[in-house]
């Protein structure tokens, strides 16, 4: 039986017959809604607030944060986490306004380490300082979520376990990533092409960005199917950059047309697939999907923008 049929109980069908055409029309809408909602759920998350990538002329960090929130609300997304590196408020004066804008939109902030240091390169004491120095920026948040910089959970087990114990002691949950398409790679070429006024190159960047997102959606769904025999609610990693903000309305529309609905990070991680991330007191789960995802790939027709293509575009 298909999803829509399964969601539409016999008693409702009988009721629709009794109440005539209007009820039948309403039932058809329910069916259509059920069919559209049959795709997976995705929790949107944005890393590297308040400042990621180059800032194009005429734009502000707060404006980027506002554009992300606007697009998310327009697409029906519930509140979404932004992960903060507090050091940027010192490196880029004025960028803290993006954090204020994020909160003003009703979206929560999570911890991404003060200065974005990979766990494999630091000792546990440094890891803890990176965590606590950021905390005042998140002080009004009830739930504490941490995203590892570079998704680096530590190569050696002793360091990894030490970091998990520190996160547990400070009451943090780990924000896993189960979908990513390398979105950060588009922000620098976009800024260059924009400065040159190269509209053809920007149109190519837009096409390849959407193609990469489609490819990653298919890859994560296939990986979840192989690992769990089903879709899980996915956690999508994006970055708070100018091109991400520009593309978000089109990206979210593309997801919705693929049947995706949007959910919160907390709701996604209630799925058993995330048990070891939701609670760092549990043992590290090397079999969890986030440790087995293939690296994001670009569709072959957009290969000229992939990898080295993005790095040299508009140079
Ligand atoms: Zn980051």
UniProtKB/TrEMBL annotation:
Gene3D superfamilies: Glycoside hydrolase/deacetylase
Domain NodB homology: from-to ranges: 39-173
SUPFAM superfamilies: Glycoside hydrolase/deacetylase
Domain of life: Bacteria
Signal peptide from the UniProt entry: 1-37
InterPro entries cross-referenced by the UniProt entry: Glyco_hydro/deAcase_b/a-brl, NODB_dom, Polysacc_deacetylase_ArnD
UniProt keyword annotations, A-Z: Signal
Family as reported in the entry's similarity comment: Belongs to the polysaccharide deacetylase family.
Purpose of the protein: Is involved in generating a small heat-stable compound (Nod), an acylated oligomer of N-acetylglucosamine, that stimulates mitosis in various plant protoplasts.
Protein's name according to its UniProt entry: Chitooligosaccharide deacetylase
Organism: Sphingomonas morindae
